[in-house]
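COURSE: Structural Biology Practicum
ASSIGNMENT: Worksheet 4, Part C
STUDENT ID: 0417
INSTRUCTIONS: Below are two proteins. For each, the amino acid sequence is given first, followed by its structure token string. Answer the questions at the end about the second protein only.

PROTEIN I
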Amino acid sequence: MKITISRRRFLKTGALAALCGWAAPNIIPARVLGLEGATPPNEKIGVGFIGCGQKAMGTGVTTANGHVVACCDPVKARREALSEKNGNCKTYNDFRDMLADPAVDAVYVVTPDHWHVPATLVALQAGKHVYVEKPLGLTIAQDLRCREAVQKSGLVVQYGTQQRSDPRFAKAVELVLNGYVGEIKEMYAFCAGGNMGGERKPGTVPEGFDYDLWLGPAPQVPFDEGVCLGNGWTGTYWIYDYSIGFLGGWGAHVLDIAQWWADLAGRGMPVTVEGTGEYHPDRLFNTVGQWDVTARFADGLPVRFLSTQMANKITVPGRPTDAKTADHGTVFVGTDGWIFVNRAVLESSKGDYQTLMQWQPPAGGIAVPTVTKGGHFENFYQAIRNKTQPISPIDTAVRSDLVSHLSDIAIRLKRPVRWDPVKETIVGDAEATEMMQRPMREPYSFETLLKGKKA
């Protein structure tokens, strides 16, 4: 008798295997499953988009192992446009309806920031693997709850810090880990700041726009076309109801490279954060727009985290003089030189790009995993098939995102904050501790969403 193993059964088997700590090969031979003559479970992984805006339209999801089968967005025109781009795949208004689609094995969460963790939690509860864009949570409490849910689920979650799938960043971390520039004494991470100012312009919700669902757990406020139907640069990136600004949105990338090294070096995350920043709480764009923050690890090692405008006021070791390649980056400064890396440059005081990329760890050294083919999404799909960790797993995503949140809190309170990495809470400051969470509008609290209730 010939037995066919469906993609659905294969992926569920994979999730169970992950829970049991079993790492399987890419394609499980029929004999391993005790099903001689079975059709190998090698179909592509079906992906559903949660969010169909500008970022979704510009992201390549289809690879050798995955393709788009559905998309959802509370804006009808957006989901229809993304559907057309992907072979007229199925469309949904509410992502919770899409999660019931058996063709959807995994989801790509590419919503405004305030929906990232809520959508991820509901998707995990539905048994779907998740690729979630950065930044992670709207609060520290959301980050911690997301990590707990991922660990309990046994499913694969890839964080959208795609620089980890660029070999130049892996090489930078590898060089630092192996002492290429000696013992690290300080680090810098800088990136674009944010818009400030602006006024809300109330308008009429257009036909085909489920505004209540778009708001979700965020506070009820009048509809503003520029905020809701523009791109992130004209709205949600800079509004505190939906984001903490580029402290998290861009900071996720440059801080992640520093944290990648710290994780592999066994350092954990920074435990004190202090600094200054500019923001305008009474304006529409009310997230921190410019900042200069220093985060320190337990042994005092500093990471100076800056907006590009603030970085322009100081000397950042190794920073290129060409403005086109100097707007962001991560720098490691050691006792024997520096290493600078961003999306255009990998340089060191001890060697140029070619020299650095050809360098190999010595015997007994540390090799950093490198994604050499297919990029961040293909790495996600391979992790699903192999029952392994993706290149950007949830644990390190939380640690780097927490630095952004601690920076935001320190700036707003105008005083240092201290983090207890064991208890995972801010210590010695009740007001700062209270800022670790925010209320969520019903019926979009975690408790209501996870009970499957709808408005």
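PROTEIN II
(use this one for the questions)
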Amino acid sequence: MHTAVRDALITGHKALIETLVLPDPDDRHVLAAAIVGRCDVIVTQNLQDFPEAVLKPYSIETQHLDDFLVNHLHLAPGKFCVAVRKVQARLKNPPYSVEDYLATLAGCDRRRTGTIR
């Protein structure tokens, strides 16, 4: 990930993990990294694992992957479509159509991205 996406690696968050309380303790590292990384949003399909009351003091919110993708589509449609097609074109084993790639991104719950063409 670090070589593919500049600034994707967050360090210095491990000491914070034990101080956080979430419904699933295995998710604490995600919140710790988001806090240290000064992230605005945690993108997840498990919204219930990151309660608003726990995230609010850190000014972090959650978004379902589907909503995140559609929000970015609306912010910059051209850039979004170019990025999706670029990543999709790199997938060779197995190859994916754009529709299949979007389905993979959003899993089975494609409330809104299912309508993107």
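ANSWER KEY EXCERPT:
Q1: The helical segments are 14-17, 28-36, 52-55, 65-75, 77-90, 98-106.
Q2: Residues 14-63 form one domain.
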